[in-house]
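Q: What would this chain look like folded?
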Amino acid sequence: MADYFVTPQMLNHMNITHGGTILTRLDSAMGLFANSYAKTQTLTGRIDRVSFYRPSSVGDHLSFCLTLLKTTKRTMTIYAAINRLSLDNRQTELIGEAVLTYVAVDAQLRPIQGQIEPYQVSDKTEEEFIHSLKDRLGL
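A: My prediction, written as C-alpha cells:
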C-alpha cells in the first residue's frame, strides 16, 4: 500500500528509525485506504496495537501491507504488516505490525453511521488469513 526509504531525519536518539515516524506514515497510508473503502472521510479512532520486532535504519526500504479485518456501520479495523524490503525487492522481513480502527465522519468530523459497506470475504485463503490474524492478535 505504501513504501519509503528511511532518511537521517527519521532517526531517534538511538540512531534507529523513530517508531513515531513509522506510525505517522502508517496512519497516513491506512487513512487513505480507509477513506477509499468507506467512500467518505475517516479519522483514526483508535490505535489498537503497534509492535516493533526489529529496528530499521538509514537507507532501509520500508513498506506496509494492509488488510481490512472487519467493519461495522461506521468503523473499519485495519491490520498492517510493516516490512523491510531488500534492495532488489525480492525478500521482505517483518519488522512490525499494527492494528488501527478508523471512524467514518461527516464534514464537521462527527461520526456517521451507515456509511461503511460490510466487508464480505469471498476468497477462502483470504478468510483463513484474516481469521488467523484475528486469533493471533486477540481481536
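The chain is about 25% helix and 35% strand.
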